[in-house]
Specification:
The chain has 548 residues and is an alpha+beta fold. It folds into 3 domains: 72-151, Sandwich (Immunoglobulin-like); 158-325, C8orf32 fold; 328-546, Jelly Rolls (Sandwich), CATH 2.60.120. The chain contains 9 helices and 31 strands. Helix 2 packs across helix 5, helix 3 (190-204) runs antiparallel to helix 5 (234-247) and helix 4 packs across helix 5.
């Protein structure tokens, strides 16, 4: 049965944070029965990359000219969110414009034929199951069969194009230069000035994309426009930093990158993000990302390690990558100091602090909530220790001071935390229950429901979380049956737990690590098991007995 596509309805697409006016076609299909298939045929002429075209008559070929004039590039995935009986991609292109291509993540069949005028590339794959959506999976392009193709010769050619289309628009006017001097007033070193520009941009330019006309999506807006509007998407936020830094005399270029997935060696457009490259006197580059820097001390997010990027420079740059980060660089420390009395009441103070992405997670977990909800939020955190626990006091450093580590202290009381029975007290760990209140804020990888998974795990940043607690127990009470040290994990993730009593101090220590940002399927059990070790430990109970 053939469906009349002329019956399709034209509607605005739902939009959130990026308001570029996209449209969608909605077409009703007849009821499908088991075994039915739907054949879709699409035709594309030229190539457009996420920008808004003006309303032009169909006869005007101008509308088909791609952003990189004279070139074609594409990435085709051969697995989708529904089962595929067959997918065929057919490209007809001038013999004067051959494409280079490569197949990734498995096999895709291909052929090349030609006549006097055209090259005809065909790629196909049959009988592919649907891609299963799983928590924290990487971009589908990292693991489903795909073909990447481009007529562009190499990345330096793409780099020079990106520089040329954006260089003039990023030049600052006097208003931008004046603002740049104001931001860095009193700062002496280049690194101090770079950090100041980054933090000002990150904290003052709201992420909100507004349509500015043709070229939207790959053309950067001027620093003057962004300074006035105080909003934009990643390319505009990056452009703001570039214009401000140029106003101070730095040599600065925009760079294309892909957050959450690889950029392959074939020079096709595989980017979803824009960042900033600062050329230093020795010819090296310092990379900064103001879009990912709100409430972050680092100029480059530790959640963007190993990320490929291409700098747009007049000389032309090859594809490069950010270095790997270690678990120890992203530390979160949660420490409890408390006292348990003979009636089972617990009173103590929990301190929370971190480094690099650990610090960022804590700050954002608080700063991204309205201030009037802080009291309720901290009370909710403490309730995971005991339902009737109450917050006594909150002490914290300046959350907006991005030049000093943030530290939060929560003092609390939990009446009847330990169950009292004659000369015994029964109680559970504190910090491992506390972190269940906001595992994302405390940088734990926690979204596990299945024992197995089909797709790789992408956790963005390696991390190291240390939970310690020392509880002063009543005089004369000792731990019955001291638990053994618990160890779980391997080279991809681990969790080690120790418990002991020294005098009246009952001490526990949890050392949790995820060592890589991308985890192969075969090692999923290490990451899941490491977090499960924390959850299982939180459910344990210990017996203190007086005079034992």
């Amino acid at each position: 049965e053939e469906i009349n596509v002329g019956d399709a309805l034209d509607h605005p697409q739902p939009q959130h944070m990026i308001y570029w006016g996209p449209r969608m076609k909605v077409l009703e299909l007849p009821r499908l029965n088991v075994g039915d298939a739907v054949e879709l045929r699409t035709y594309k002429k030229g190539f457009q990359i996420a920008y808004l075209e003006e309303e032009l008559p169909d006869a005007e070929e101008e509308r088909y000219i791609p952003p990189m004039r004279g070139h074609f590039y594409d990435t085709i995935l051969f697995k989708e969110g529904m089962p595929l009986r067959e997918k065929v991609y057919n490209l007809r292109i001038s013999r004067e414009k051959p494409v280079q291509y490569r197949v990734y993540n498995g096999e895709v069949y291909s052929s090349l034929t030609f006549d006097n005028d055209l090259l005809v590339y065909t790629f196909w794959l049959n009988d592919q199951p649907a891609v299963k959506r799983e928590p924290r999976q990487p971009g589908a392009s990292d693991f489903v069969p795909k073909v990447v193709m481009a007529t562009v010769k190499d990345w330096p050619e793409k780099s020079r194009w990106f520089f040329e289309v954006n260089n003039e628009i990023l030049q600052p006017d006097e208003n931008v230069c004046r603002k740049a001097r104001e931001i860095v007033e009193g700062l002496k070193t280049e690194d101090e000035q770079i950090a100041a520009i980054l933090h000002w941009t990150a904290q003052n330019i709201r992420y909100s994309g507004i349509s500015m006309g043709k070229g939207e999506g790959y053309t950067l807006h001027s620093g003057m426009m962004t300074l006035n509007d105080r909003c934009g998407v990643c390319k505009d936020i990056a452009g703001m930093s570039i214009s401000l830094l140029r106003g101070l005399g730095f040599t600065v270029y925009p760079a294309m990158t892909m957050a959450g997935a690889r950029v392959e060696t074939i020079p096709a457009d595989q980017f979803n993000h824009c960042v900033v490259a600062i050329k230093r006197d020795d010819g090296s580059y310092t990379m900064i990302d103001p879009t990912w820097a709100p409430y972050a001390m680092d100029v480059w997010s530790r959640a963007e390690g190993e990320q490929h990027y291409v700098i747009g420079s007049p000389e032309g740059e090859d594809r490069m990558a950010i270095r790997s980060f270690t678990a120890e660089e992203n530390l979160t420390k949660i420490n409890l100091r408390g006292a348990l009395n003979a009636d089972g009441d617990l009173e103590g103070t929990i301190s929370i602090e971190g480094t690099c992405y650990g610090d960022t997670r804590i700050r954002r977990g608080i700063a991204y909530r309205p201030a009037e909800r802080y009291e309720a939020m901290f009370a909710d955190w403490i309730s995971h220790i005991a339902p009737d626990a109450e917050v006594l006091n909150i002490a914290q450093t300046d959350i907006d001071d991005l030049y000093k580590p943030y530290r939060l202290e929560i003092s609390f009381r939990a009446p009847g935390y330990a169950i009292k029975a004659e000369n015994m007290l029964l109680f559970s760990p504190v910090t491992t229950n506390f972190v269940q209140s906001a595992p994302r804020t405390f940088d734990l990888v926690y979204e596990y429901k299945a024992d197995e998974r089909e797709n790789p795990l992408h956790v963005w940043n390696p991390r190291h979380v240390v939970l310690t607690e020392s509880i002063k127990v009543p005089g004369g009470y000792k731990l019955v049956n001291v638990p053994e040290t618990e160890e779980f994990g391997g080279e991809w993730a681990s969790c080690n737990i120790e418990v002991n009593q020294k005098g009246r101090a009952f001490n526990t220590s949890v050392d949790y690590k995820v060592y890589k940002r991308s985890i192969p399927v075969d090692y999923y059990d290490e990451v899941k098991g490491s977090y499960d070790t924390i959850k299982d430990f939180a459910r344990k109970t210990w017996l203190l007995k007086k005079g034992s």
